[in-house]
Design goal:
This protein is mostly beta strands and 288 residues long. It has a single domain, classed as monomeric porin ompg (Porin), CATH 2.40.160.40. 7% of the residues lie in helices and 49% in strands. It has two helices and 16 strands. The strands form three sheets. Strands 3-4-5-6-7-8-9-10-11-12-13-16 form a twelve-stranded antiparallel β-barrel. The protein has a two-stranded antiparallel sheet with strand order 1-2. Strand 9 and strand 10 form a beta hairpin. The longest helix has 17 residues. It is globular and about 50 Å long. The protein starts with a helix and ends with a strand.
């Protein structure tokens, strides 16, 4: 069954690639992810938004639409971030949701929430050695309303503390490879879309992609999630898998348009079928 899902991801990624024209330039394919950090879709890169050494950058903005299906609903994320001193990044994201139609499970995912995040470069790429990756650490906090009808009443809060390393390998000039990965401590369930997990867990994440001609980034990523959901016994949440195609059509890579498929999970426990194993997302970003 799992092999069928992954074949579906490969198929839709191939379709997305086939509709992008074969153009080349030397621009970078970096943009804001679903939560407003510079990165892939579900994972942060160690790179920070470019700014002058003693200055604050102009802001970067992004909009993402994630079609989670009848249970998870459609999520809309609007993000704004800035860079500081060419080593620090901070931003804000607001998430809204068009609620799914499968009650009572859709109640798990019907909360909009706000995200505040920050990331600082600990080691710049190439420091002391050409093979040295960029290394950064960061924090992320989510604030969302509770389910009054579920008896929670108070707002739900969760967050991440993470360390990530990213390396761009330029052995092939027109197709540099981007590798990224790290660890995060988190008490969020499905990146906060399902609220809290019952405790803080250590989770890994990874990204691998090829930046074709500096114009098209084709990549895949995996983001491990806490297995449990607070107040839902026997939940067994799988990791998030995405396949991403990001197009940067202008020479300075200010505009980024991306699309792909994402797996948030299918059956995540007895009676918990979220039907979000193969869903699509769309995003557009701009660096001012």
């Amino acid at each position: 069954m799992q092999s069928r899902y992954y074949l579906r991801y490969v198929f839709w990624t191939a379709v997305l690639i086939s509709i992008i024209p074969s153009l080349t330039n030397t621009a970078c394919a970096q943009s804001l992810n679903l939560e407003g950090q510079s990165g892939g879709l579900a994972t942060p890169f160690a790179y920070t938004l470019e700014s002058k050494p003693n200055r604050i950058s102009f802001p970067a903005a992004a909009f993402h639409l994630l079609n989670g299906g009848d249970v998870v609903g459609t999520h809309f994320q609007v993000s704004l971030a800035v860079g500081f001193l060419n080593r620090v990044e901070a931003g804000f994201t607001r998430s809204a949701v068009s609620e799914g139609s499968c009650e009572p499970l859709s109640n798990l995912f019907d909360r909009g929430f706000s995200i505040i995040h920050g990331k600082a470069a600990l080691v710049l790429e190439g420091t002391g050695n050409a093979n040295m990756p960029a290394i950064s650490a960061g924090v992320l906090a989510r604030y969302q309303r509770g389910h009054i009808e579920g008896g929670l009443g108070a707002a739900t809060q969760n967050g991440d503390i993470f360390v990530t390393a990213t390396k761009t390998i330029n052995r092939i000039e027109q197709a540099p490879v981007i590798l990224s990965g790290g660890l995060k401590a988190t008490n969020a369930s499905i990146m906060g879309l399902a609220g809290n997990s019952p405790s803080w867990d250590l989770c890994g994440f990874a990204f691998a992609g090829v930046n074709v001609g500096g114009l098209v980034l084709v990549g895949a990523e995996y983001a491990q999630q806490p297995r449990e959901i607070e107040d839902f016994e026997n939940a067994d949440v799988s990791g998030i898998v995405t396949f991403l195609v990001r197009l940067t059509p202008d020479d300075k890579a200010r505009l980024a348009v991306e699309a792909g498929v994402i797996s948030l999970g299918d059956v995540i426990g007895p009676g918990l079928e979220v039907k979000a194993d193969s869903r699509y997302f769309f995003g557009v970003g701009y660096r001012f």
